[in-house]
Amino acid sequence: MKFYSEAAMERAMKIQEVILRAIAKKITWWQAAEIIGISARQMRRWKERYEEHGYDGLYDRRRGRPSPKRVPLATVEKVLALYRQQYFDFNVRHFHEKLREEHGLGLSYTWVKLALQGAGLVKKRRQRGPHRKRRERRPLPGMLLHVDGSRHRWFCDDRWYDLLVVMDDATSEIYHAGLVEQESTRTVLAALRAVVEKRGLFCALYSDRASHFFLTPKAGEPVDRQRLTQVGRALHELGIQMIPAYSPQARGRSERNFQTWQGRLPQELRLCGITTPEQANDFLREHYSGEFNRRFAVPAAQRGSAFVPSSRRNLDRVFSIQHERVVNRDNTVQVENRCLQIDKTPWRATLAGCRITVYEHLDSTWTIGYGPHAVGRYTADGTLLQRPPRQRTRVSARQSLALTPVALRAPSVSANQTKTGHFTCYKKRTF
């Protein structure tokens, strides 16, 4: 019993309890085998061992005994000595062949590899990744767009910037390219809005799992598609699907594209004497993006386009950072250390207690929206820029009649009036 651990003894007690229940006919032997996790044939063997040896027959009889396939210690020492002294620069496969051909040792390749790795004579290789297959391009432009950023020293000095690129999967055409301080929600929204305004609505967007694209509850797990980021919310309103990439290899097309950018753009900026991001973005927009597309864009597999013209007039609201707030009793809203004062609106006495949406626009201005209404627009520091539009004053029928010129009024016909042709005759009324 000294060779058995607590876990083995606990398992034996569990098996004994199940066997006793089967002997008492509370459960069948087939159910007992299913509970323990063995076959019905093995269950019959254990029943016979329990009847013959009692409780001790339920222990694993291999416990404490050496494996019959164990390699002798002298053979192990010989293999390690051969590798250290004579075959130290051989790889495992080559060394295994020499053991079989030159020294007559019929050991398996797996055993030799594990022995050398366990002795520290051979480094463990990184586990191979899953089998991947090249993904074909989409047949039409606008079906799938890639968005990604590459951090690099684009001005050949110690300053680092992100190059944010939006590229079509079907043709590798660059729709937007710009240098930004850092890839973020605001810069991504600005890039996507530029593409939508210039090209139209596209079908899907392929990106990495950065926090401004997706929310991931735990590292390595799938993204949470129910909780949307600001970018996810904007694309959801436009009906654009977002596709996350779970490995750099999945974004191989955009990754290879950035290698070309890093090998060409810094030299072009140096030749043109461009040293600021503003000048670089003007150069990219007016000259280099078109040249880049002429050199590296490929024709699509099919004719046509999947872009759809955008009919949305509120893109300024869609491509903004939205905050849900409740109006205070003094008709103010607190958002990011700012106090936005709401003016009186003609269509509601007060907005106190109402849930409103504060839109932080890409030009650093703010807008407060209540349903379809724009309550006001504010500067970056919270100063009111645009008041809510005035509503037309409702005019009653009596007031409308009073404001109408006398010559245009149509006289009403009463009981003591008669019409003759186009003239109205009034009966003389006697008192």
Features:
single chain; 431 residues; alpha+beta; Nucleotidyltransferase, domain 5; 5 domains; 5-stranded mixed sheet; 5-stranded antiparallel sheet; 14 strands; disordered C terminus
Biggest sheet features:
5 strands, mixed
What strand line-up does the widest sheet have?
A: 3-2-1-4-5
Helices and strands: which structural class? alpha+beta
Number of strands: 14
Going by CATH, the homologous superfamily of the largest domain would be: Ribonuclease H-like superfamily/Ribonuclease H
**At CATH's second level, what is the architecture of the largest domain?**
2-Layer Sandwich
What proportion of the residues is helical, as a percent range? 25-40%
The DSSP helix count reads: 12
> Please, how many domains?
5
Q: At the first level of CATH, what is the class of the largest domain? A: Alpha Beta
List SSEs in N-to-C order. Answer: HHHHHHEEEHEHEHHHEEEEEEEHEE
Describe the protein's architecture and organization.
The protein is extended. It has helices at residues 6-23, 29-36, 40-53, 73-85, 92-101, 109-118, 185-198, 230-238, 252-271, 277-296, 315-318, 397-403, and strands spanning 145-152, 161-168, 174-180, 204-207, 241-244, 321-326, 332-335, 338-341, 355-360, 366-370, 373-378, 384-386, 417-420, 423-426. Helices cover 34% and strands 17% of the residues. It has 12 helices and 14 strands. Residues 399-431 have low confidence and may be disordered. It has 431 residues and is an alpha+beta fold. It folds into 5 domains: 6-58; 73-118; 145-296, Nucleotidyltransferase, domain 5, CATH 3.30.420; 320-386, no CATH class; 400-425, no CATH class. The strands form 4 sheets. Strands 3-2-1-4-5 form a 5-stranded mixed sheet, sandwiched between helices.
